[in-house]
Design brief:
Elements lengths: L3 E6 L5 E9 L2 E10 L4 H13 L4 E5 L3 E4 L1 H15 L5 E4 L4 H10 L7 E2 L1
Parallel strand pairs: 3-4, 3-5, 4-6, 6-7
Antiparallel strand pairs: 1-2, 2-3
Length: about 120
């Protein structure tokens, strides 16, 4: 799996970065900034790379996520369903942003997503 930061921000106003790393048998993908329709394809592709690895656990870190829209919720639910059919390795760390937490709670996704505390 790739390591480092893949960053997309610029004149179009996007505020997004993604970092992937591997340690102690776990693959971790950290999403920073805004998770919206313009970047979900990139996040999904990075998660597919993690899923194709031999990682014991795949951690999707949302701690530094600042914005989440409906397409981001749909991606999180899709990743969870895909994980359940592929060994259940996905774990998600909660966002610190009250806005992101509220979106997750209001949509009912908090009851389904595999959060770790």
């Amino acid at each position: 799996m790739s390591q480092g930061i893949a960053n997309t921000s610029g004149l179009d106003g996007r505020n997004f970065a993604m970092r992937s790393e591997r340690s102690n048998g776990d693959a971790q993908v950290s999403v920073l900034g805004d998770l919206d329709l313009s970047v979900i394809g990139s996040v999904d592709r990075e998660m597919q790379r993690a899923e194709a690895s031999d990682a014991d656990r795949i951690v999707l870190d949302l701690a530094e996520l600042e914005f989440l829209d409906a397409s981001g919720i749909r991606l999180l639910l899709h990743l969870t369903a895909r994980s359940k059919s592929n060994g259940g390795r996905l774990r998600i760390t909660r966002a610190r942003s009250p806005h992101v937490r509220r979106v997750i709670d209001l949509t009912g996704a908090a009851d389904v997503l595999p959060f770790v505390d």
